[in-house]
């Protein structure tokens, strides 16, 4: 089923002459882990806002084309109704997390949705467990690290159990460890709960390793779309657009290893291909320092 269908979408912010989205078409199916990348200014945030309804319900501008979420035009829905099926997570965890403690933060969004106290309790527990914050329930939010705050923002977004989660560069302020934790949480939501993940992200090392399918945006247009391996093979295009090809993929492309879908996108996969490549050439993959026995 189509979670998201976008057809010939154009959007220009009020007061601007340049379209932020410029004829974009896109389809995301239920259960996909879909990654959207592109340089700053490519239109990623604008696209996220078109999916979660901030456009047209909050931001004004010229909108043309179709955005359907579960078959319903976003413009004809209301932000409250959309929030039940689309959970949103933004870049800046600091400004998203507003309550004094972890439990209140997750409960906050649920309170306006008419859940019974028992349902709320269940959902708070489930959401915190899914993001690995079960032991943090009473903790003041001011004590959380950046990564924990972002995981809390994800817990709050997923507590109503939306069928799709849209995340706009959720790891932009996190270090590699915090970034990996967020991607692992998202993979778990995707695999175990069947939640559709749509994530805007510039960190292509993670995006390519975790996503099923990717889209590259440039100046509000789709320039590449396909599996991470298919997209990352287009090194010249990505270099031109300003999207980073992960080092492991770049090395494989240079050595001519990892054909088609077998292009390595994780270090483990890359290492095993390089070892095979070296063995074929009669070179030991291991350092040749003498063993002292
Ligand atoms: P990205 O998330 O890929 O960095 P954005 O969607 O934020 O891209 O921006 C796309 C274009 O829209 C940019 O040219 C940006 O300057 C413009 N833009 C973004 N937000 C606004 C706004 N509120 N008002 C006017 N122009 C905006």
Looking at this protein, list some descriptive labels.
single chain; 293 residues; alpha/beta; Rossmann fold; 2 domains; six-stranded mixed beta sheet; four-stranded antiparallel beta sheet; globular; binds adenosine-5'-diphosphate; cell membrane; P-loop_NTPase; AAA+_ATPase
Structure description:
This protein is an alpha/beta fold. The chain has 13 helices and ten strands. The strands form two sheets. It has a six-stranded mixed sheet, sandwiched between helices. It has a four-stranded antiparallel sheet with strand order 2-1-4-5, covered by helices on one side. Helix 5 (102-111) runs parallel beside helix 7. The structure holds adenosine-5'-diphosphate. The site of adenosine-5'-diphosphate has 11 residues, from helix 1. Its main location: membrane. Pfam families: ABC_tran (PF00005). Residues 4-244 form the ABC transporter domain. This is ATP-binding cassette domain-containing protein.
């Amino acid at each position: 089923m189509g979670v998201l269908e976008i057809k010939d979408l154009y959007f220009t912010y009020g007061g601007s002459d340049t379209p932020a989205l410029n004829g974009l078409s896109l389809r995301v199916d239920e259960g996909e882990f879909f990654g959207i990348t592109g340089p700053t200014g490519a239109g990623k945030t604008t696209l996220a806002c078109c999916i979660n309804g901030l456009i047209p319900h909050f931001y004004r501008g010229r909108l043309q084309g179709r955005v359907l979420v579960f078959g319903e035009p976003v413009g004809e829905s209301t932000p409250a109704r959309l929030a039940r099926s689309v959970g949103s997570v933004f870049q800046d965890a600091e400004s998203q997390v507003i309550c004094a403690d972890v439990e209140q933060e997750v409960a906050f969004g649920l309170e306006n949705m008419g859940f019974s106290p028992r349902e709320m309790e269940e959902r708070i527990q489930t959401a915190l467990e899914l993001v690995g914050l079960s032991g943090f329930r009473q903790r003041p939010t001011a004590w959380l690290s950046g990564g924990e705050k972002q995981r809390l923002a994800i817990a709050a977004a997923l507590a109503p159990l939306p069928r799709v989660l849209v995340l706009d560069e959720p790891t932009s302020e996190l270090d590699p460890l915090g970034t990996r934790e967020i991607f692992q949480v998202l993979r778990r939501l995707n695999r175990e709960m069947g939640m559709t993940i749509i994530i805007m992200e510039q960190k292509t090392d993670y995006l390519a390793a975790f996503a099923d399918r990717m889209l590259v945006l440039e100046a509000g247009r789709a320039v590449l779309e396909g599996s991470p391996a298919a997209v990352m093979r287009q090194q010249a295009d990505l270099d031109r657009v300003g999207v980073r090809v992960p080092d492991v993929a770049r090395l494989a492309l240079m050595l001519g290893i990892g054909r088609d879908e077998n292009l390595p996108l994780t270090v483990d996969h890359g290492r095993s291909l390089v070892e095979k490549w070296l063995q074929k050439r009669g070179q030991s993959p291991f350092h040749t320092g003498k063993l002292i026995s």
